[in-house]
């Protein structure tokens, strides 16, 4: 199931950058659009094909984007967002970091300059450990 963060940034990406976006009538988790990376300067008439597509990958629980011309194997949502709009990608990455869904085991890397020990939710999870209780007490977390 798509998280609220992914849904909000996907809809923002559609509104800002994906021209001609239309979801498939047969499959709700599939869509076609004009790729903003390779089809931005071409004319769009009724005979011109939409080469970009996105689909929901249920095994990795994330959106995959592919384009026949520039990304035939497909790339993840964060990487595609980084190529289309780097500012939006960094905001997405930071919001995912605050929710604890970045880094190892996720499709979005942790932001640069943030150590894994700085995760707010990880510090609270380790609060019961004796070896961390002194350090957390110094920070005001009991």
Characterization of this structure:
This protein is α+β, with helices and mostly antiparallel strands and 142 residues long. The chain folds into two domains: 4-102, no CATH class; 112-142, no CATH class. Helices cover 36% and strands 17% of the residues. The protein has five helices and five strands, in the order H-E-E-E-E-E-H-H-H-H. It has helices at 4-16, 77-84, 86-99, 120-125, 130-139, and strands spanning 22-23, 30-33, 52-57, 62-67, 71-76. A five-stranded antiparallel beta sheet has the order 1-2-3-4-5. Strand 4 and strand 5 form a beta hairpin. The longest helix has 14 residues, at 86-99. The model is unreliable at 124-133 (pLDDT under 50).
Chain-wise SSE layout:
Blueprint: H1 4-16, E1 22-23, E2 30-33, E3 52-57, E4 62-67, E5 71-76, H2 77-84, H3 86-99, H4 120-125, H5 130-139
Antiparallel strand pairs: 1-2, 2-3, 3-4, 4-5
Identify the notable features of this structure and list them briefly.
142 residues, alpha+beta, 2 domains, five-stranded antiparallel sheet, 36% helix, globular
Q: Please provide the ordered H/E string of secondary-structure elements.
A: HEEEEEHHHH
Q: For the terminal residues, how far apart are their CA atoms?
A: 34 Å
What's the β-strand tally? 5
**Total of helices:** 5
User: How many structural domains?
Assistant: 2
- Structural class, judged by helices and strands? alpha+beta
- Using the CA coordinates, give the radius of gyration: 19 Å
The residue ranges in which pLDDT falls below 50 over 5 or more consecutive positions are 124-133
**Average of per-residue pLDDT values:** 76
- In terms of DSSP E residues, the strand content is 15-25%
């Amino acid at each position: 199931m798509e998280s609220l963060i992914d849904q909000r940034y996907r809809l923002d990406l559609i509104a800002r950058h994906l021209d001609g976006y239309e979801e498939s009538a047969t499959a709700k988790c599939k869509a076609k659009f004009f790729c903003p990376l390779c089809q931005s300067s071409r004319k769009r008439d009724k005979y011109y094909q939409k080469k970009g597509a996105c689909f929901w990958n249920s095994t990795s629980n994330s959106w995959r984007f592919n384009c026949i011309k520039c990304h035939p194997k497909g790339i993840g949502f964060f990487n595609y967002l980084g190529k289309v709009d780097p500012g939006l990608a960094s905001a997405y990455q930071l919001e995912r970091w605050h929710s604890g869904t970045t880094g190892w085991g996720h499709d979005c890397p942790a932001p640069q300059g943030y150590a894994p020990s700085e995760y707010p939710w990880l510090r609270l999870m380790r609060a019961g450990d004796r070896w961390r209780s002194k350090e957390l007490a110094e920070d005001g977390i009991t």
